[in-house]
Design goal:
This protein is mainly α. It folds into two domains: 92 residues, RNA polymerase sigma factor, region 2, helix turn helix motif (Rna Polymerase Sigma Factor, Chain: A, Orthogonal Bundle), CATH 1.10.1740.10; 89 residues, Arc Repressor Mutant, subunit A (Orthogonal Bundle), CATH 1.10.10.10. Helices cover 79% and strands 0% of the residues. α1 packs across α3 and α4 packs across α7. It is extended, with a radius of gyration of 22 Å. The termini are far apart.
């Protein structure tokens, strides 16, 4: 392997965590951007700019912290740049409207993170059998028919069992959040 190939290989290895994190969270970052920008084309451009800035500054990201929060902060600055460049456009919202959108979006993201962590905790409370069933049904993406074949049950039984588990998880998440527990 040449020295240049080694450098390229080392560079790519160092950036693999970034690619994985961006791929896993792209939709959430893009959803934030699209909620703040009037059209899809501009949102696409801002997403590209955001990803480029994230790539350039990934060495500043602390592993184990919230990647989406870090990315959204960068996106926020890209959106502010966009707004400065498009001030004369009649489609732009007022400063107050943008500030309100940013504030509300941050609240929704925090609530979503809390709900997601509560769900993870509730999933951990399930029996091994129930966790395995959830994995088959949702993580593996198996159809109800395939799950029924795997566990030797009818499709109706799989639907009933799925509904019962979903109901239990929903109530568990609600109880966790209502109790004010930090998930």
């Amino acid at each position: 392997m040449t020295q240049e190939n080694e450098k390229t290989s080392d560079f790519l290895k160092a950036r693999t965590p970034f690619v994985k994190l961006l791929t896993a969270n792209h939709a959430r970052i893009y959803a934030y951007i699209i909620s703040m920008v009037p059209n899809d084309s501009d949102a696409d451009d801002i997403m590209q700019e955001t990803a480029a800035v994230m790539w350039k500054n990934f060495h500043k990201f602390e592993p184990g912290t919230n990647f989406v929060s870090w990315a959204v902060t960068i996106a926020k600055y890209q959106i502010l740049n966009y707004r400065k460049q498009n001030k004369r456009s009649r489609l732009c919202l007022s400063e107050e409207a943008y500030d309100l959108l940013i504030s509300e979006t941050e609240k929704v993201q925090e609530q979503s993170q809390d709900r997601l962590q509560a769900l993870r905790n509730c999933l951990n409370k399930l029996s091994d059998k129930d966790q395995q069933f959830i994995r088959m049904r949702y993580y593996d993406g198996s159809s109800a028919r395939l799950v029924a074949q795997k566990v030797g049950a009818s499709i109706d039984a799989v639907y009933r069992y799925t509904a019962r588990l979903n109901d239990w998880l929903l109530n568990c998440v609600r109880r966790t959040l209502a109790a004010g527990e930090r998930p």
